[in-house]
Design brief:
Mean pLDDT: 79
Strand order of the largest sheet: 4-13-12-7-14
Strand content: 35-45%
Distance between the termini: 37 Å
Helix content: under 10%
Radius of gyration: 28 Å
Oligomer: single chain
Low-confidence stretches: 1-6, 131-136
Number of helices: 1
Structural class: mainly beta
Shape: rod-shaped
Number of strands: 14
Amino acid sequence: VTASTVETCDPIVKVKAVAQNCEERPDFDITTATIPVKVDGDAPVVACTIFMQELEGISGEYEDIAFTYDISDECDRNVDVNVEVFSNELSKNIDEMVFISDPESYLQIFVQDHACGKYDDCKISNYEGKKMKKRKKKSKKEDEEDKFPISRKYVVKISATDSAGNTGMATCSTFVGTDSSDGKPLFQIASSQFERN
């Protein structure tokens, strides 16, 4: 039996069988068959961008972070897409930290323009300020010390899996306040799955 071993996206592979030393069959009698297969060793190529890479943390409302993505695959037009959002902070109401629109129509990601501070009731805070005792009057120096640097990071991870099981992924991020979250653990706060046609 002879067949091509070259990786191909073509779902059709032709197999040729050559008879040799077979009873009741002349030598070199050739039979061919067409078998539908798919050989795909390459993962989808995934890229993402967040245009709102820094939020001020003032409004406390949902902000559209202008998330865009691109997925390309040489073999599959349809791939399964998974979007996950992570943060280094966890608010008391985790469901309120992020909102993902219907990805079947137009994927948008809205995050809470807010970070945990010294007065917030957060499960996990990245607050790095110095908690001050209440004073009747503060000096200018004490006022400066009482200003707390907030640092909430949002990371979006998008992955695409083709019909052969190959997975490609990309991550992009935005932050509220100052980005001082390197090395800090991230917690999943939202996810969404859909098929890209």
